[in-house]
Amino acid sequence: KNDDLIVATQGRSFWVLDDLSVVRQWEPEVLKKPVHLFASRPAYRMRGGGSRRPSATSGQNVPSGGDLHLYLKEAVDEETPVQLELADAKGASVASYSTKPEKELKQKKLDLSPGMNLINWDMRVAGAESFEGLVLWGGGLQGPRVVPGIYTATLTHGEHSETVSFEIRKDPRCSVSDQDLQDQFDFLIGVRNKLTETHEMIKQLREVKSQIELLNKRMKDRKSTRLNSSH
Questions:
Q1: Residue 18 pLDDT level (bands cut at 50, 70, 90)
Q2: Most buried one in 131, 138, 185, 197, CB count within 10 A?
Q3: Is 25 strand, coil or helix?
Q4: Residues 116, 132: contact at Cβ < 8 Å?
């Protein structure tokens, strides 16, 4: 059923092996590559999914978001990090991962081990900037979910690079138009950018205040030194 293997008994038990698309793409040549990125099946833009904690008596639901499967031949060398870039149909970056993330690029940590790895993208773009001591009541800094459409994932490891396309589909229960979702996304991006601008200004004001306090202390120390010298 839709690339899932479902097995049931005559009783009330059933088991689901999620996403056979990876098994169907497997070839012996994959093992010869340093890394390999598999094509992903369509993901649905919807809330929910996943299980908060493992259960001893029931299975675990598929996590919400988009799943990306990759094969890693050997452990990652810090000198040659593995990077994963997600982009929309226009080529604009929507998410970035790296085994050696850079804060300036807002990259998320990519934890990989030799063998098969699963990366689950929450379909959100980067969130707003924060600052030390920030207090938010009933809100968060996370970025908005992207709109349905075709996206690309590019895996890079040294000189080796692979790109696959995948689709994000609208929640089939959702009656709003694609344009409505685009308008919502554009509005939320504007809110995120304004919040980032505000927080960046707060950090600048704090920096200026710190510099003024340091300057006043130096001036006070210098004045005290001059008075002592005159005596």
A1: confident
A2: 185
A3: helix
A4: no
